[in-house]
Specification:
Blueprint lengths: L1 H5 L4 E6 L4 H10 L4 E3 L1 H4 L4 H8 L5 E5 L16 H8 L3 E6 L6 H16 L3 E9 L2 H13 L3 E7 L8 E2 L2 E2 L2 H4 L1 H17 L2 H7 L11 H5 L8 E5 L9 H9 L3 E5 L10 E6 L8 H6 L1 H8 L5 E4 L1 H5 L3 E2 L2 E2 L6 E18 L11 E14 L8 E5 L2 E5 L1 E3 L4 E4 L9 H12 L3
Parallel strand pairs: 1-2, 1-3, 4-5, 5-6, 9-10, 9-11, 11-12, 12-20, 13-15
Antiparallel strand pairs: 7-8, 13-14, 15-16, 15-17, 17-18, 19-20
Helix pairs in contact: 6-7
Pfam family, one: GATase_3
Cofactor: Mg(2+)
Keywords: ATP-binding, Glutamine amidotransferase, Ligase, Magnesium, Nucleotide-binding
Length: 426
């Protein structure tokens, strides 16, 4: 992405799947919002329109895959990179870790080409990663040729490029700061020197024909009065989809970002959105902002909290005082909760009506222990052991807090309801 931008192209970046972290780096590399294409969360019919929306005024769209080309939801190809490529009719460039390969690369690529043909997609070529030498590149290029694939470039092995990771994957671009920009610049130089980006642009020619998604069209008549919706941001709250903010604005909200580690609520706040992120990394900072915690606790307007936002609304996080909006305690664990969920809303709220069904995903290592039962569970979904109830709806439905991440583009009515309720609390 960075090399294409450096070559003068306007690049629209996308990520297959629900991941929030990679799109943050895409934004730094391209200067445009990183966006997700996830058919599990939004359905197959929205993939084309969301791609069209995100690629407006761009010369080329680059879609980073997820896992392997054909890996999607467990036991299914749904949500895989191959499915997204097939839905859009775009070619695929494989990136292969070539360390330890020579002639066997041909067999590997033959398998991908054959499987791609069965899936109705086209592999345009390959980029080789971690190539040992010029001779190694020659051997690999010949092997790829026997599989009928062009080698667009070969990246040499280097220990200079690294991006820090932790318990939920890479450290976010927001937290990584200047080092993230430096890493992207180094990667850009490496790709520009060793990959034929012009050949990739030529191979990428395709016609994605689908109506563009329009946030103003899907939310309907906007709320009156420009209610201020405070959107938590900064290093602790970085998980969000670009379409969410666009929908909030289209629904009539005046979106105001703030950093809960140091800021107070924006003036005139009528509603609050607390997205996911890493509150456990910044619990001390969040706890020390006592004035904001009191403001949140005393709010009378709607609150939408996901994952990190849920833990922030608890009485404490590993002993660090939080907002105490919910009578619950949050704690960090060694267990990773990860995966898609087919959920039903079992309590009506400012976002969802009772009985609404949707697909979401979980991605966390914290857990929440509810104490009084004053809150009603937000969701229920089937598990291998039965039915799990999760999240909390409180305050007569004006507070919706949950570990479940949802994609607002799939449920614009929820955003419209939220902003409409915010307008009544101005």
């Amino acid at each position: 992405m960075g090399a294409l931008r450096a070559a003068g192209h306007r690049v629209a970046p996308f990520k297959v799947g629900p991941d929030y972290i990679d799109p943050g780096y895409h934004t730094l590399a391209t200067g445009r919002p990183g966006r997700n294409l996830d058919s599990v969360l939004v359905g197959s019919d929205l993939i084309g329109p969301l791609y069209g929306h995100g690629s407006q005024n761009a010369d080329i769209g680059v879609i980073e895959g997820v896992m392997g080309l054909f890996d999607g939801r467990v036991g299914d190809a749904k949500g895989s990179t191959a499915e997204i490529a097939a839905l859009l009719g775009v070619p695929v460039v494989l990136v292969v870790d070539a360390k330890g390969y020579s002639q066997s690369l041909s067999a590997l690529l033959h398998g991908f080409v054959a499987h791609a043909a069965e899936a109705g997609i086209r592999i345009a070529g390959v980029i080789l990663n971690r190539v040992g030498s010029a001779r190694h590149r020659e051997i690999l290029t010949a092997a790829a040729g026997r599989a009928g694939l062009t080698v667009f470039g070969a990246l040499p092995r280097t220990e200079e490029l690294s991006v820090p990771s932790r318990h939920l994957g890479l450290v976010t671009a927001v937290e990584h700061g200047r080092a993230a920009l430096d890493a992207i610049a180094a990667m850009t130089r490496l790709v520009a020197a060793h990959v034929d980006v012009a050949a990739i642009v030529a191979a990428a020619r395709s016609d994605v024909s689908a109506p563009r998604w329009d946030p103003a069209e899907v939310v309907g008549v906007p709320a009156v009065g420009d209610p201020v919706v405070a959107l938590a941001a900064g290093q602790a709250f970085t998980f969000g989809y670009a379409e969410h903010r666009e929908l909030l604005s289209a629904a009539g909200a005046a979106v105001a970002e703030f950093d809960p580690r140091s800021d107070s609520l924006p003036a005139g706040t009528a509603a609050l959105v607390l997205p996911g992120g890493f509150p456990e990394q910044f619990a001390a900072d969040l706890s020390s902002n006592e004035y904001l915690r009191q403001q949140v606790r005393e709010m009378s307007g709607p609150i939408h909290a996901e994952c990190a936002g849920l833990t922030y609304l608890c009485t404490d996080l590993d002993g660090a005082p939080m907002c105490a909006v919910l009578d619950a305690r949050a704690r960090f664990t060694d267990s990773l909760t990860l995966g898609y969920r087919d959920a039903v809303a079992i309590t009506g709220s400012v976002l969802f009506e009772e009985g609404e069904r949707l697909s979401g995903h979980e991605f966390h290592r914290t857990t929440v222990d509810y104490r009084t039962g004053a809150e009603h569970a937000a969701w229920a979904w089937r598990t291998g052991d039965g039915v799990r109830r999760e999240g909390a709806v409180a305050g007569g439905g004006r507070i919706h807090a949950s570990y479940l991440h949802t994609h607002p583009a799939a449920h614009p009515g929820a955003v419209a309801r939220f902003v409409a309720q915010a307008a009544t609390y101005r």
